[in-house]
Specification:
Elements lengths: L8 E6 L22 E7 L3 E2 L5 E2 L8 E4 L5 E5 L2 E7 L3 E5 L2
Length: 96
């Protein structure tokens, strides 16, 4: 994949959610919600500031992140689904 997001945009690949509950019940695809977790696959150079500089992004390629349910724009590249969103739409970075 050759994609370079502009400014403060990031490209995220959704991570699959668990299909079984803690009690052992299997959730069918039709009832499952879209995952709100993903892995950052590309990061732009950063958000332009008022003084002409660039604010370095806080997320990096490879980070596992949480994002809003309706955040980003879905795109398809090489039969893979990705989300392109602003870094501001990333809620948290998962560590550990």
């Amino acid at each position: 994949m050759n994609i370079r997001p502009l400014h403060d945009r990031v490209v995220i690949k959704r991570l699959e959610e668990e299909r079984t509950t803690a009690g052992g019940i299997v959730i069918p695809d039709t009832a499952a919600e879209k995952p709100q977790r993903g892995e950052v696959v590309a990061v732009g150079k950063g958000k332009p500031t008022d003084d002409g500089g660039v604010r370095t992004p806080e997320v990096q390629t490879g980070d596992k992140v949480l994002f809003g349910k309706y955040a980003g724009t879905e795109i398809k590249i090489d039969d893979e689904d990705y989300l392109v969103m602003r870094e501001d739409d990333v809620v948290a970075v998962l560590e550990g």
